[in-house]
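To: structure subgroup
Subject: Chain for Friday's discussion

All,

I'm putting the inputs and outputs inline so they're searchable in the archive.
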Amino acid sequence: MTDFADRWGLNPEHFWLRGKQPEQIVRHDEKLGVWHVYGYPEAVEILGDPVTFASDSSYLLPDADDKAEYAAGDLLQMAEPEHGNLRKQVGHVFSPKAVADLESRITKLAHELIDELAGREAIDLVTDFADPLSGTLFCELLGIPTDDRELFKLVQKSIDSPVQLSTLEQGEDQESYLEAQLAHLQPLRDRLTEHIVERRARPRDDLLSLLIRLRKLDGTGLDDTEALNFAIIMLGAGHLTSTVLIGNTALLFDEFPEQAARVRENRALVPSAIDESLRFLTPAAATYRASTTEVTIGGTRVPKDQMLQVWFACANRDKRQFTHPEVFDPARDPNPHLGFGRGIHYCLGAHMARMEGRIVFDILLDRFPVLRTDPDNPPKFYGAPDFVGLHSLPVLTA
């Protein structure tokens, strides 16, 4: 796995991708003012206790007050009981039953896109296929023109920045983490706001109309900013998650051809292969929490009001939880990975991503007897240090 990580230029600080276990389960990073948490049971403990470890850790960032409007309505940072209230109202859109109803549409879209690529000896599996597939589907769910999916790429740009999260004041010439995340998003925010305003006047049967019908515990609805931020969070859950999962899984199939052959011969392994991909090459590599009191984690004392960077990707390689964690095993069972998170903030789009991945790989394996990386045109990963995913995967089909 060292060759794999180094050959594709994956973050050198991601030691778990190189078959190593952490020297310390919990480590304080003095340069960033952040506590790194690498272990599986420690991650589960933190994610399962939203009182001791608050979801909204943004108040610990130096420029949080200046960016407060971007946090309003952000489901990922919302605390209970409001989080549960709003999630329940919107959760049925991503429920197993609702997602199952989309199966025929996903299948049709996938075949149409592959038909357009038929006969080409080289394609980009992400930009030519996975991205337009998930983008078109999510446009239809939102009820917006499919041309607007081009603006979704601005979300991808926001996670292409190498700027690391820090609780320490940055120099005047240094871009902050929030600035790097938000710098590209304004055109998308403006366009989605136009749609939200239009839905208030003329509601429809779509996801944006649902957002403006949501009611908070005090009986009020979401304002335009809250609805907008909620929509962008769901965009990540319902679109980006699926796109990156397809790219990462395809790359792993190329890297481990014997395992890919097992899946090709036994399609019943496709679902478990997708979950193993999430464990082995976890896209959302980390999440953040704030300690609301002094607490001991993994034998280390962490003071109150500290930023915790919980590394899903490393926890998914914890030898205390997984047998032979460095092995990519598409038949791994059980596989209690943290690829979709854990606890109250478990990924809303998990069912959709799993189903989309299952459908896509059944079709890809049928339509392409060969899919291999192009040695003259390597894959390109996003630059964010807390995200591991491809925004480009050139492959040869012969």
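Points worth raising on Friday:
The chain has a mean pLDDT of 92.
The radius of gyration is 21 Å.

D.
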